[in-house]
UniProtKB/TrEMBL annotation:
It is found in: Cytoplasm. Coiled coil: none annotated. InterPro entries: AcCoA_carboxyl_beta, Acetyl_CoA_COase_Trfase_b_su, ClpP/crotonase-like_dom_sf, COA_CT_N. Pathway: Lipid metabolism; malonyl-CoA biosynthesis; malonyl-CoA from acetyl-CoA: step 1/1. Its EC number is 2.1.3.15. It comes from the Bacteria. Component of the acetyl coenzyme A carboxylase (ACC) complex. Biotin carboxylase (BC) catalyzes the carboxylation of biotin on its carrier protein (BCCP) and then the CO(2) group is transferred by the transcarboxylase to acetyl-CoA to form malonyl-CoA. It comes from Devosia nitrariae. NCBIfam families: accD. This is Acetyl-coenzyme A carboxylase carboxyl transferase subunit beta. Keywords: ATP-binding, Cytoplasm, Fatty acid biosynthesis, Fatty acid metabolism, Lipid biosynthesis, Lipid metabolism, Nucleotide-binding, Transferase.
């Protein structure tokens, strides 16, 4: 019996409970096909070290890397009606919501937080693409409005990290009504004289692009982000023509004046910190006095495009490139 208990049974268990290597230890770079260890990606804010490709980052990780010491206060979002249309496709809408909440640990696709950026109070809102593609429904719309109202009430700038596939079809017209609701809230923040900075991440499309995501005082895009209303595939099928390379990507939109600057994820914190100081006329922070030349150039070009001024006396008759749309 001892031989069976001590040798045979453990051997059988080892075959039945054979450990397998987790599938998520390595992540494939969509651009180069390189396999990257996920801990290296996590330490690098989910930017592929060699190619520089910006992968999607979780909303909580975004807040921790953006705010001072990763500390923030989560702002409660008022509850809204769940599944008012009793929608069902292949699954019931309530079941899809349960799955998304289990997957992300969030109530919906928008998180609102209050914290500090280089010692200054700031309100931050992040859209989580993992929650049903960051789609805009009543709860997400209420989250954006809560962020705007929190910034207005606490007299702080608002930074919005947008990532969405557009309006949430399961809520129909109620989803589309979030476009005017959020627009009115943006106007109230503007009347209060507080900065609204939008960071467009990959992807930002549909009704989100058609509303609050394009109503900021400054629009920053991450490299390679898809920013559009209708996607390139839909446009190609409609006009039956091949679109230019990089069409609707952040670099293309910057060249055509749709965004003010394209900033690497590692530089977002310092860039936005400098912008907040400029827009609020705050005392300069020594840590931010050394700014990367590329960032300075982008800010200057954005200012020139906004003012409609020329870069020099020799270019008086030529409009700035960033302001010219073909």
């Amino acid at each position: 019996m001892n031989w069976i208990d001590n040798f045979v049974r453990p051997k059988i268990r080892s075959f039945l409970n054979k450990r397998e290597t987790p599938e998520n230890l390595w992540v494939k770079d969509p651009e180069s096909g390189e396999m990257v260890f996920y801990r290296d990606l996590e330490a690098n804010q989910w930017v592929v070290p060699n190619s520089g490709h910006h992968m999607k980052i979780k909303a909580v990780d975004r807040l921790k890397t953006f705010l001072d010491d990763g500390a923030y206060e989560t702002i409660a979002i008022p509850p809204v009606a769940q599944d008012p249309l009793k929608f069902r496709d292949q699954k019931r809408y309530v079941d899809r919501l349960k799955e998304a909440r289990t997957k992300t640990g969030q109530d919906d696709s928008v998180i609102v937080a209050f914290g500090k950026l280089y010692g200054r109070d700031i309100t931050v809102s992040v859209q989580d693409f993992d929650f049903m593609g960051g789609s805009l429904g009543m709860a997400a719309g209420q989250g954006i409005i809560t962020a705007l109202e929190t910034a207005a009430n606490r007299k702080t700038p608002l930074v919005l990290f947008a990532a969405s596939g557009g309006a949430r079809m399961q809520e129909g017209i109620l989803s589309l009504m979030q476009l005017p609701r959020t627009t009115v809230a943006v106007l109230r923040l503007r009347e209060a004289g507080l900065p609204f900075i939008v960071v467009l991440t990959n992807p930002t499309t549909g009704g989100v692009t058609a509303s609050y995501a394009m109503l900021g005082d400054v629009h920053i895009a991450e490299p390679g982000a898809l920013i559009c209303f209708a996607g390139p595939r839909v446009i190609e099928q409609t006009i039956r023509e091949k679109l230019p390379k990089g069409f609707q990507r952040s670099e293309y939109l910057y060249e055509h004046g749709m965004v003010d600057m394209v900033v690497h994820r590692h530089n977002l914190r310092s860039t936005i910190g400098s912008l907040v100081g400029l827009l609020t006329k705050s005392e300069p922070i020594e840590e931010l006095t050394t700014t990367a030349p590329s960032t300075r150039l982008a800010i200057r070009e954005a200012a020139v495009a906004a003012e409609g001024d020329a870069a020099g006396e020799d270019d008086l008759g030529v409009p700035p490139q960033a302001a010219h749309a073909e």
